[in-house]
């Protein structure tokens, strides 16, 4: 026991020494976080602008370029032949406190392509601002060490001090407390007086070896540090890892051991960015609001001499320049542009063949009424005409033995606003009470889950005109005027005021809009592209049925609205909310009213109802069980971060909860069909385990609350899910 005082003294000395080593670093980081609004030029200055030159070089031998579901592309062969890929751009960067951020690309150069591959400019290769909560590499978000989240994720250590721009600087090293897919390591240089970032080196040593660097210059007038140079290095490692680029993927993986040994130090990707001519608190020309990246037409035709001034800052080797000069002929010979076109259009369900894009959605489907529906459709592209567009489809049902078709002729009034005036004619079937929004974004899936289960359709012959326009970058609108002749596939009769109608004519005027107030957009000579999808996304639609117009039988008014909001988290999890509502007044047939997107076949046994789960459908609600002339639904989904079990097995657990409430006036006007009202409120919850194998998973959902059924199995829905990324 006599040694206890000595042991306690020794232990306390160790603790004090550890605190002396660690606490200063932690306090320095905390001070930097506390003062970040004062040190961040985007916060401290009313306006901030500068010039930027950026070059991206892909060097070495990438092992494969693939897209999910694709075989190796021609782009891989191009890089193997040239050994290098180059993209250069110059930009004016503007930030205004009231209007936000804007990058005006003043020149863009991509050897080998007639015009730049614009989607590459959507990629956030590397963060420009180190004061944000996350740090970005290749659109992947990592926890910023200079953030409140970083305090819980990293250990900090004082390495020493130095002098930069004649100012005393602390050097702080950091490393993750627990290694994860969202953490970094590296060193940060902090100004001792202002607690501002004066330099930074970040590293990611996982499947890919990533090194980033940021150098700063000091403005003594405003006491601020501006980033003057940054670079991004990605090197090969022995593990397979894909990086998405050009809509395809670069896959860096394991080859023969002798190749790995020989090429370990070979750089795979280099991006360097030079920034200069900083201007502060001056009047700026911001340009069009709502656009964060703008590429004017005159930026893509700069002479080669334009780039010499900038390349003096980053000289290329003679061999590199020779390779760049070969790119034009090699890209043409290897048909890389063609391959990129296929990749880009395949993502939204088209396959280009000359001047015509085949619509893959129409090739084959299945439903209860038609059985197999076999067809073909598509649309002309810019190779046919930049002003005129002809689209349509033809389909044949193997059960009903009837041919369906659509033909649409469109004329583009404005390329910038993507304004199209179209006339169309359709002869087809549609789901009973299947309301849709005109401005919903096109979604392509290998098959449509709910369509397989839908039992009730109506026939229609329609012709009409529509005007589609992007009013603002964030607002898409459409107006349509149409006439439909409706026929029944069931015994349904609509009898308003005792006057029965089996078949009827509807003339409708519809106006719709979708607003994405938090999204960011890029404007190119080809129009607008959404660069960052922001939330909420709001949709609204008004439809007026006009009695007497073109022999229309009924007069009515319908209102529809929808709001979606998704919260993405840095660990890969997300939570999504979808609120949707519809209201109708007047004489509206049931075929054009509303349901809650039910997706349970009307069969007795739970295994007989085993089918495909929908994306936003009520899995335990039976088809034709409920209809409404006013309805509101709320759906909530929480996706947990994927479980990384093996390279090919990364299942995702999702929990879901859905609620619907509605009502129905004048149910007696709808004959030969039995249904319930939703006035008591409908509730179901469940889970999905997705992407177990080849995109397939399983789900289970249970119905409870006011519409709970007496038998347990009648409330349960077991289904498989299908989520395959193209």
How does this model look, in words?
By secondary structure, the protein is mainly beta. The chain has two domains: 16-340, no CATH class; 415-722, Beta Barrel (Porin). The chain is built from nine helices and 41 strands. The longest helix is centred in the first third of the chain and has 31 residues, at 4-34.
Report a brief summary of the structure.
The protein is mostly beta strands and 726 residues long. It has nine helices and 41 strands. This is Carboxypeptidase.
Features:
signal, Carboxypeptidase, 47% strand, 726 residues, Porin, 13% helix, DUF5686
Number of domains: 2
CA-CA gap between termini: 71 Å
Low-confidence stretches: 3-22, 61-78, 238-265, 327-334
Strand content: over 45%
How much helix, percentage-wise, in residues? 10-25%
Radius of gyration: 30 Å
Pfam family, one: DUF5686
Signal peptide: 1-18
Protein name: Carboxypeptidase
Keywords: Signal
Question: What's the arrangement of secondary structure elements?
Answer:
Elements: H1 4-34, H2 36-39, H3 41-44, E1 47-59, E2 64-66, H4 74-82, E3 84-96, E4 100-109, E5 134-137, E6 140-143, H5 148-151, E7 154-164, E8 167-176, E9 185-191, E10 197-205, E11 209-219, E12 224-235, E13 241-245, E14 248-252, H6 257-263, E15 267-280, E16 293-294, H7 304-311, H8 318-334, H9 336-346, E17 350-353, E18 356-359, E19 364-367, E20 371-380, E21 388-397, E22 403-414, E23 419-431, E24 457-472, E25 475-488, E26 493-494, E27 504-515, E28 520-524, E29 527-532, E30 537-545, E31 556-568, E32 574-586, E33 598-600, E34 611-612, E35 618-622, E36 630-639, E37 652-663, E38 670-671, E39 682-693, E40 696-704, E41 716-722
Parallel strand pairs: 4-16, 16-28, 33-35, 34-41
Antiparallel strand pairs: 1-3, 1-15, 2-14, 3-4, 5-6, 7-8, 8-9, 9-10, 10-11, 11-12, 12-15, 13-14, 17-18, 18-20, 19-20, 20-21, 21-22, 22-23, 23-24, 24-25, 25-27, 26-38, 27-30, 28-29, 30-31, 31-32, 32-36, 36-37, 37-39, 39-40, 40-41
Helix pairs in contact: 4-8
